[in-house]
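pasting for ref
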Amino acid sequence: MSKLLTSGNIICLLTVLSLGIVSCSKELSRSSSSSTATTTSTSSMSSTIAVAVDSSASGTDSVYIIQPCANGYYRDSIASSALPAGITSYLDSAYSGFSFLKSYVIKDSGGTVGGYAVIVSYNGKPVGLLFNASGVLVRVLEQRQSGDLNGNGWHEGGRYGNRDGRQKDTVAISALPPAITSYFMTDYPGDTLLKAFKNYDSSYLVISRDSGVIYGTVFTTKGTFVKRVVLAAPAAEIASVAQTALPSTTLSYLTTTYPNYVFEKEYSLVSGSSVLEYLVVIDANNTKYALLFDGSGAFLSARTIW
């Protein structure tokens, strides 16, 4: 495996293969690495940890969750019951129905806790999250396939191929399966369909609005209803906005909190000539999120869609 170093920090890799837990061949200490791979520098060592396995139609699909570690820190596996209550509460709220895959505590050489890395399965997809020592979310950790550990972190046709910026997952409203359009006509006749996507797992996400409320509705690949989520309920007009028009504060937050995320859609929620809020829908490692920011671009809230 190639060496991954960034400005004095080590990139620690958490090996994930979407579903089904397997035990680690060797737990890590500050001076050892697993048998999966070893990368070293003159000052420190990085490591990979096998935590799960998945057999897809195309065979085993290796996924790596990337967690930057400061020099002098190491990671120990811990039981989910040892996590701060705030982390479990956050997961219950943000990833309802999730299942644990692996949990780690991050410590310095003196044993002081610096944070926690948690890997869960959500709707059949791995999600890696980094929390600080108090259990507050720091970021949603980036994922890469084994052949994409260096460079941009994706390849054409790969699991994260949507990072090319061409929004190949976008589906024309007119091209939605008849079962989906019929469902809206019957169950939500007041909805105006705004945007649709076909997700990596072949499910569909449809963004719509009714009486000023913006919804995200998920369907299976056959058009069967799965869930409906309120993305924003503003007392304001809704207007589409270009990514380049978003405040720099918003763009900075997204880059920091969702590394290598993909923009899906952005809206401004306006009253007269004033922008009250921004609604941004993104894809991060094949999980879609809706985030609200105030008129200045400061983060307000995030909702996991699917």
